[in-house]
Amino acid sequence: MGTYIAGRLAQMIPTLLLIVTIVFFLVYVVGDPVGLMLGDNATPEQVAAMREAMGLNQPVFMQYLNYIGSVLTGDFGESYQYGQAALPIVLERLPATLTLAIGAILLALVIAIPLGVWSATHRGGVIDSVVSSISVLAKAMPNFWLGIMLILLFAVTLRWLPVSGAGSWAHLVLPVIALGTGTAAEITRLVRSSMIEILSQDYIRTAYGKGLRRRAVVYRHALLNAFVPVTSITILQFSTLIGGALVTEVVFSWPGLGQLLVNAVSQRDMALVQASVFVIAVMVLALSLISDLLFKAVDRRINLG
Amino acid sequence: GCGGVPGTTSEDAETGADNEPQTLVWAHSVDPRSMDPQDALQTSAERINRNMYSRLFMRDENMEVVPELVTDYEQIDDETWRFTIREDVTFHNGDPLTAADVEFSIDRVINDETLLEYQFFNQIASVEATGDYEVEIVTEGPMPTLLTLLSKSGSDILPSGYIEENGMDAFIDSLIGSGPYQFESWQRDDRITLTKNEDYWGEEPVWNEVEVRTIPENSTRVSELLTGGVDIIADVPPNDWDRVDAEEDISMQFEDTTRTVLLIVRMTEGYVTADQEIRDAIDYAIDQGAITESLFGGHAIPTRTRAPLGVFGANEDLYDDYVYDPEQAAEIVENYGETPSVTLTASRGTYPLDAEVAEMLTQMLEEVGFEVNLEILEGGSFSDVFSEYTNDELYMIGLADGLLDASYSLVHYTEQRAAGQTDYSNETVEELIAEGNRTFDDERRAELYAEAQALVAEDRPHIPLYVQPGAFGVSDTVSWAPRLDDNVIFDDVIPNE
Amino acid sequence: MAESVTLDSAGTESAPPRPPGSSKRRSWKARLRSIPLSGWIGLVCVGIPAVVALLAPWITPHPPASIDPSQALLPPVGMEGSDPAYLLGTDNLGRDILSRLIEGARVSLMIGVIAVVLAGSIGLTVGLVAGYYGKWLDAVLMRVVDALLAIPSVLLVLVILGVLNPGMWTLIFVLGITNWVIYARQIRAEVLELRERQFVRAAQNFGVPGPIILIRHIMPNVLPSFIVLSTLSVATVIVTESALSFLGLGVQPPDISWGLMLTTGRDYLATAWWISTLPGLAITFTVLGILLLGDWLRDALDPRLGGRS
Amino acid sequence: MPPGHRTLRRDSPGGRRGRQELSLLACGPAAGRTEGGDPAVSTSVQPPVQPAQTESPLLQIENLRKTFTVRSSLLGARRELVAVDSVNLSIPAGSTLGLVGESGSGKSTLANMVSGLLAPTQGQVLIEGNRVHDGRGRVSLRGDQGAQIVFQDPYSSLNPRMPVRRLLAEPLQVAPRVPRAEREQRVKELLDQVGLPESAMDKFPHEFSGGQRQRIVIARALARRPRLLVCDEPVSALDVSVQSQILNLLKDLQKELGLTYLFIGHGLESVGFMSDQLAVMYLGRIVEQGPAHQVLGRPVHPYTQALITSSEAVPFRDGGTVELQGEIPSPLNPPSGCVFRTRCPLATDICAEKRPELTPRESTRLAACHHR
Amino acid sequence: MTAETAAQELLTVKDLRVSATRRESQDLHVVDGASFSIAPGERAALVGESGSGKSVTCFSVMGLLAQNLRVSGGSIRWRGNDLATAKREEIRRLRGPEIAMIYQEPLTSLNPLMTIGYQLKEAARRSKVGRREILEMLDRVGFADPRRIMGQRPHELSGGMRQRVMIAMALIGQPKLLLADEPTTALDVTIQSQVLKLMYDLSYEMGTAVLIVSHDLSVVRKLSDTIHVMYAGQVVESGPTDSVLSQPRHPYTRALLSSAPRLGDTRERLESIPGIVPTPDQWDAGCRFRSRCPLATERCAETPPVDVVADRSSACWHVDQLLAEQKEATPL
Ligand SMILES: Nc1ncnc2c1ncn2[C@@H]1O[C@H](COP(=O)(O)OP(=O)(O)OP(=O)(O)O)[C@@H](O)[C@H]1O
Ligand SMILES: Nc1ncnc2c1ncn2[C@@H]1O[C@H](COP(=O)(O)OP(=O)(O)OP(=O)(O)O)[C@@H](O)[C@H]1O
Ligand SMILES: [Mg+2]
Ligand SMILES: [Mg+2]
User: Fold this and answer.
1) Of A44, B30, D179, D189, which is most buried by a Cβ count within 10 Å?
2) Which regions of chain E does DSSP assign to beta strands (E)?
3) Is residue D14 part of a domain?
4) Which residues cross the membrane (chain A) (predicted)?
5) pLDDT at residue B181 tops 80
């Protein structure tokens, strides 16, 4: 067990290196920030001088080696926009995005599990069709669109909730709904299909055969077995959610990682891009490790190793 | 105003607090990239800095340059100036503001070439504190715009003692100035909070607290205004102007800006736009009036020059004017031989309705026979094209005049600056600008610039479209009128009873 | 085989008549009849946009890009102030929404379908190969998948669009190469299980080469989940395109897509809801159709369901 | 006659030669003597007892061992599970070796190793003198040269998405390929051979009954005319009438094509019916071995004895008893000494100390027991 | 059908018909006209061709038919109440303490994620049986260390162990009727007979009636008192085990018996029934065995009469001829 975790952690290192490398070259290909930094009235000489000062005139490979060297020592460089080390800026933003993403996932699960179960147990019926249509609708609504609609309805017209910004729990409600709805739709479909599969298993019949009530069979026996597929898709959704969070954050002017990353990319702030991607990557990889351990705890048949 | 807590509208907040105005909340669309006052070069940063720092000069509401810290000044010769400053000014940390701080601040911006403001200040050769409250500035050659420059962003006076003691990083975290409001906190991409400077040397500041929020999404910003979450918003999107205005307790406030939306035309050999006639045809084909009327409801002003009215040296004859003659344009295109094909590069959302304008331009050009390849780029790539000089025939951009002086706008028509971008060169224009730049006689200087603009308007290295309006939504809880320089002086905002 | 042993079993008897439902060589009429209602609804929901997209140049009532500011923001017919010439109203530049929807169908469907095909084929191949051959190949491929999963796809999109010219094909390419990892993961997981199945081992026992086992035995069995993934993915891609438009990265004029309409219309949600709601409904309608078609296709491909429910 | 068809063998003297030999080659000097009374071999010539064999056996298993590494729980340590332990067997061409044993005793594992689907941990499997595994975890004999296997569960060994036509054609597409034109014909022949109508070709596996599926699996295994067919419990899930059809079919095919079978089963009746030689496995080891009728008629090992007694259908109400009591051992934690001692009525102290070796009994048989 | 009164009987299945709904064509009857009954404490067996509807009949009694199946005719009387028309809730209450079932597939019938102990407790709860009794039951089904087994999960057990867990689970509630659907297929004969003996003893002690479904005639013979033979959805013959096995009164039963291999069989070939089972689409009112029956005549196309002799019944036109032939041949 301990060795397994150690092994997995060790495996993360090449993956992270791969990520850092991919991102380095991606950002390199996009171009450097000098033009953007100098603004409308810069002269070519200024640009050249700035490049030299930033070490951007060296061959790519040298730049890469230098970069990897400093990353290995935990230094992601300085964000030129903020004039500060990049990593702390990213870490400062992390809680906001995590709150949003976790909120959205929880919401998605709270909606998706009963709906998915409900439509699976009524497969082919009216309820099933209604749930399917709703999930298609939810999937077809981009989250920025939904976000704006929610603001117009709940904040502007009804005045129940604040429009934007972060602060109280009330600020969290709308962005979480906007972000979680699409995920909920996807998880609903998955819960439905896993439950259909599971409900046709022999052990479900055994459970009924004991005289258990339907609710007990469905929610205890069947749902437990849906845990692994549902959790793994939820984990997969997590990195998608961070991508979605970025748009939601803009709509609700939520000061999270997403906005930071978009700005960093469009401002070619390499250090900030790298640091954000790195933090997100570590999170995603850690989650996948945790989920694997969780699976193992639930389903002892899974052989890790 | 109020802090945007649910359920508490502005009214609630005020009644609950002895009717004394407490917090002004206002929102704009872009978060400052940096709060280093000499390294920001952004309207959004300037709007805050202007309230946090003092400068030697300032612009009053009529855009006149008037002394701020300076009590007295003289021009010793063409290149040397001496300034005496107030003695009762202290920084937010209590340090007195002296000539040493002025020297430190100006010295920094004229020497550190990594600062974004450096490019505007490099005509200043040196600065020296000649007494506790006396400073001497020497320029390279005659510099008629020095006082203007000293009122511009980047000329904020920084606390030299604090910075020398604690370093620049510490300063960026604490942002100590000497203006009416002092820095409280900055949640990036969310809000900047300022509080009243109780020891301000001037009139007592109006607000106890000012919160500047960044809300990038247009409709969210408007919604905040509608629900009373904020008192003032900048950049109300044109489609919401009527809606906002129709609200009972909110009004729209418009004002010109110095930002002119124009087409940068590539005149480089090999491009169809190297041909003067083609450039003429493009201008003839464009109905600026239709754009300003249908998209901006008449709040944008058509123009034929980059330097809009209000900027020193602007050519008034070219303002609120445009040439539209589709028949002639069609004729030129027909006689051209082949179908002229142009690429029009624009972005979406960088300026209000920019993509829509580009689409209208496309249709207008196509109607007279051009073949148009419309290319709408994401913000980052759009800026890359500009800074890397990779623009094709037409590139649509909004350029502002940060100095409010035509010398700033006209730089683009000098051969050196145009090389690689428009590749424009006109010896007469070159000479006119150069002479203007060293003339101290304001009247003469303005004439020279106006003449240059008239020539440029015919050569068409740029085809100006319109002056972009500043559109603010203002809640009735406050009274305020916007300024030409797009700045927001918090003390100009007066709470209504 | 004249000397073949005669057996005491069914072989010598004439085969009983086949039950009507299970005949394999059914006439096309019978096949059509066997499509369930939901399948028909799916066909209609996908068919209409598809046909409309094909016929777009001939059936748009107005040129879709033609700007006429004097006709701006007309509501759909039935609402106050509408103009019958513009059935579904106009947008802020006075362009006909219906015509734009018709024109946008082409781009949106192309993006949805081609990007999914691209992502699906990469993901399927990687998933099959990694799952079946395992060992270091699996380890390497899965690390790449992990890495790509961990890098926010927006970054990839931004970067690729920064290098290539924006446009429909670039978008298709970008969405294709950012979406394949999900397939790869899912398919690999199933292959891991399938390769232990007895029919696969039986094929190995015959000496059937690996690639053929993959194609002939394993692929058809991952097809159902592949179809489910793909149909959902079409929705994801169409919607992602619109989110990219939101960031200024999506389809750009003069091309029109539903996603772009949805995005540019969002500023008008409070004043002219139809500009962005109608394309949203078009997306919903199509996605629902694809989903139903997918469900039907999955059932139709399963011989165990041939004939009964 | 299609290539590779060996109908000739039925009539050739070699066709029956297998029955003359005994399959105990690897088991010591006493191996290889046939006793009278076996109807199948009664007419055969007595073979020499000495290892001087005229012909090597078709299948030879030498000292075969297979261990699996298992983990008992999340935090549990890895443990070795010995599924098959020092098994020696051989089957002469044209004859059948029956394998019975407790469930989980390693029969399927053995079958999988013989057919090349599982690599042994130790020892080797030879088919006509060629090694099935190259010793480095890879299979060197496959397809034509190797053994074909009929799995325990016919349904799961048929791809549910393929019609019978393609299922049966598949082995014919492996090099050396049967030309496309002939394939269809061959498929029909195969179906005919196993007694299925031609109309079965377009049906899918789920459309058949269990017995019919089993025949499809057998037909497929026969498609390449394997010399050795491994049948892993081909009939245990079927009702008796279908079961008898399959058994008859296998016997007929053996006669006609001269096939060699390794036949695994639970039902002593059916295994006894099929086999010439019989081996009894318990917890990974062979505990008894010899001519089928002898083993079943006069069992030596107490486990074999128990199997036979249990098979007798004496109603409980008429005093039917259960032969064996005691805990069934776990392969992860096998008892010391004789693995059967926990259930053995004869067990004494020596059984816990010393593991009994497989030693010759009578002239033709082997058994591993301290007491008999 | 035995001529006992309904009151004495625990379960009476009469003319049971189970239909499968199909999407595009008519409903298919998978059981059609099955009748038999079981008295309290009786041990009965259900044998017959694979696919003849044995499992489906058991599931109908439990009310656990697959979603696409339903009882479309006949009655299932449990102590006089018709289960076929009873409410879900009523049947649910019977499951466990009254009727319990051992399922055909022990490998898949246990929830893979729950401990054995939990699953047993769930089964015991309705009968208010405690942990001590559960441990005792595990001990009785042959586990040396019941406490450890309680904490384990199905995949940690061997097939035989799982099957014994299933048996313990079914018996823990001390049901009045135990339906055992091929409870020993995965076991070797020694363990098989151990398990059967256990079922026998428990049935004997607790007075539990048992209906065992099996292909293996030796199993049936060991355990059951009566036997019901099913063919193509119907019960074609019923009677005391010994007499049915020694003197079948239906040609199918006879064919079945003669195709079973025997220990020490010296036959070169086994007998088997020619032809294949008619599919449900081909079922008609006549005798369904007639296409494979050596005795078949034209008359067999009519519904065969139920021939009731003492405690035996069978449905065949040619019982007499059958018996005559048997006299000539050596008895089984
Ligand atoms: N892949 C595997 N990993 C770990 N253990 C295994 C594996 N395959 C088989 N075993 C174990 O090896 C032993 C022998 O299994 P095998 O399937 O050969 O038994 P068997 O004699 O065929 O039993 P049955 O009669 O039930 O089919 C069992 O204890 C089984 O649990
Ligand atoms: N859910 C279902 N839908 C349709 N047909 C079914 C279903 N379940 C079973 N059947 C059919 O009903 C018939 C009887 O099945 P059942 O399982 O009762 O047979 P059985 O007598 O138990 O056979 P075996 O001995 O093989 O277990 C079979 O023809 C089977 O194909
Ligand atoms: Mg086995
Ligand atoms: Mg059954």
Assistant:
1) D189
2) 11-20, 28-38, 43-48, 69-78, 81-82, 99-102, 177-181, 209-213, 226-231, 234-240, 306-309, 312-315
3) no
4) 12-31, 98-121, 142-162, 168-187, 222-252, 272-295
5) yes
Alpha carbon nearest to ligand 1 atom 5, residue:
D68
Find tokens 């960031």 and name the residue: C247
Percent of chain B's residues with pLDDT above 90 = 64
Domain that holds residue D85: 57-277
**Within 13 A of D372's CA, how many CA atoms are on the CB side?**
21
State if pTM tops 0.90: no
- Among D112, D157, D185, D189, the strongest candidate for a mutation testing the C interface, having the largest count of C CBs within 10 A, is D157
Nearest to E155 among A206, A212, A301 (CB): A301
Q: What single string gives the DSSP state of each residue in chain A? A: -HHHHHHHHHHHHHHHHHHHHHHHHHHHHH--SHHHHH-TT--HHHHHHHHHHTTTTS-HHHHHHHHHHHHHTT---EETTTTEEHHHHHHHHHHHHHHHHHHHHHHHHHHHHHHHHHHHHTTTSHHHHHHHHHHHHHHHS-HHHHHHHHIIIIIIIS--S--S-SSSHHHHHHHHHHHHHHHHHHHHHHHHHHHHHHHTSHHHHHHHHTT--HHHIIIIIIHHHHHHHHHHHHHHHHHHHHHHHHHHHHHTT--SHHHHHHHHHHTT-HHHHHHHHHHHHHHHHHHHHHHHHHHHHH-TT----
Give the per-residue pLDDT at D137: 64
Is A30 in the C-facing interface, judged by CB distances under 8 Å?
yes
Q: Which two tokens stand for residue E193?
A: 């007979």
| Beta carbons of D172 and D225 less than 8 angstroms apart | no
Residue D13, domain member (yes or no): no
In a domain, C15, yes or no: no
Instruction: Tell whether D122 is covered by a domain.
Output: yes
D269/D322 same-domain check: no
In a 13 Å sphere around the CA of B109, the CA atoms on its Cβ side amount to: 28
Restricting to A residues 208-267, those with a Cβ less than 8 Å away from any Cβ of E are 208-213, 221, 224-225, 227
Mean of the pLDDT values across residues C200-219? 87
Give me the phi and psi of C75, to 5 degrees please.
-75, 165
CATH number of the domain residue D185 falls in: 3.40.50.300
What domains does chain A contain, in order, with CATH numbers? 2-86 (no CATH), 88-298 (1.10.3720.10)
ipTM: 0.78
| Residues C184 and C130 sit within 8 Å (Cβ to Cβ) | yes
Nearest CB partner across the interface for B219, out of C69, C70, C270: C270
% pLDDT > 70, chain D: 79
Residues in the 5 Å CB sphere of ion ligand 3 = D 108
For B489, phi then psi, to 5°, come to: -95, 115
User: For residues B463 and B286, is the Cβ–Cβ distance under 8 A?
Assistant: yes
CB contact under 8 A, E22 and C20: no
Token pair 């009122």: residue: B151
Q: Please judge whether A255 and B120 are an interchain contact, meaning their C-beta atoms are less than 8 angstroms apart.
A: no
Asked if C18 reaches chain D (Cβ–Cβ under 8 Å), the answer is yes
Which residues make Cβ contacts (< 8 Å) with residue B396, sequence separation at least 6?
A: B261, B262, B263, B264, B344, B345, B346, B347, B354, B357, B358, B361, B465
On whether residue C19 sits in a domain, the answer given is no
Tally of structural domains, chain D: 2
Q: Is chain E touching chain B, with at least 3 CB–CB pairs below 8 Å?
A: no
B contacts of C158 (beta carbons < 8 Å) = 378, 380
* CB proximity list for A282: less than 8 A, separation 6 or greater: A12, A16
- The arrangement of strands across the sheet holding B80-85 comes to B70-75, B80-85, B134-139, B124-131
What distance in Å separates residue C300's CA from the closest CA in chain E?
13
Residue-level pLDDT at B334: 92
pLDDT tens per residue, range D4-17: 343 333 333 333 33
C12 domain-assigned: no
CATH number of the domain at C131, please: 1.10.3720.10
